[in-house]
């Protein structure tokens, strides 16, 4: 498996999706409770699946590590932490194709799904720090959400970990409050 170093939006999105599977985001429900859910998560994100015993625990530890980086986003801490996450890389190559060359990182042949998620999260974090800056790491603005995210939007004004869910909940609550205030 190879991860393109210039595809930071995808890699940061995988890291964001990973941290938002945690029980604290879903009011106690873990969205990665077993290997089947881990396999489904990997397949949803086009990550090769190669699980071994203990891989789920490794992914849960990775999820905690990535969340901690997002929650405490100093540039030095992000770089150090994300560099450790990329330790599963075997080598860096320059890929030619489609009229341009791009740098890519390859996993070791014995890598697991946990290793792939670690590499992808590390590349995403490092690329966002380098391209957009450490100020792009946030916790969700929705009052009832404990989610976190890496903002890769062009203007950098994203407020919710899951805009379709958290953003809609806030908008509906605001709409209802406005209706109630107007007395309708």
Account of the 3D structure:
The protein has a single domain (2-182), classed as Jann2411-like fold. 48% of the residues lie in helices and 14% in strands. The chain contains six helices and five strands. The strands form two sheets. The chain has a three-stranded antiparallel sheet. α3 (55-71) packs parallel to α5 (113-131). It starts with a strand and ends with a helix.
In short:
The chain is an alpha+beta fold and 184 residues long.
Find the CATH superfamily.
Answer: Jann2411-like domain
As a whole number of angstroms, the C-alpha radius of gyration is 18 Å
Can you name the CATH architecture? Answer: Orthogonal Bundle
Which structural class should the secondary elements be placed in?
Answer: alpha+beta
What does the average pLDDT come to? Answer: 91
Entry keywords:
alpha+beta, two-stranded antiparallel ribbon, 184 residues, Jann2411-like fold
How would the blueprint of this fold be written?
Elements: E1 2-4, H1 8-19, H2 35-44, H3 55-71, H4 75-85, E2 89-97, E3 100-107, H5 113-131, E4 137-139, E5 148-150, H6 163-182
Helix pairs in contact: 1-3, 1-5, 3-4, 3-5, 4-5
């Amino acid at each position: 498996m190879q991860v393109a170093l210039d595809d930071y939006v995808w890699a940061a999105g995988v890291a964001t999706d990973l941290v938002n599977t945690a029980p604290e985001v879903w009011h106690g429900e873990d969205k990665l409770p077993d290997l089947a859910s881990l396999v489904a998560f990997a397949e949803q994100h086009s990550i090769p699946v190669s699980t071994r015993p203990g891989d789920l625990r490794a992914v849960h530890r990775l999820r905690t590590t990535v969340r901690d980086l997002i929650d405490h986003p100093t540039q030095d801490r992000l770089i150090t932490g994300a560099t450790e996450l990329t330790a599963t890389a075997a080598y860096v190559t320059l890929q030619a194709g489609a009229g341009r060359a791009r740098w890519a990182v390859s996993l070791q042949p014995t890598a697991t799904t946990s290793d792939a998620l670690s590499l992808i999260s590390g590349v995403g974090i490092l690329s966002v720090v380098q391209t957009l800056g450490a100020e792009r790491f946030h916790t969700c603005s929705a009052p009832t959400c404990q989610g976190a995210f890496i903002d890769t939007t062009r203007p950098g004004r994203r407020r919710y970990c899951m805009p379709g869910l958290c953003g809609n909940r806030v908008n509906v609550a605001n709409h209802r409050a406005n209706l109630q205030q107007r007395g309708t």
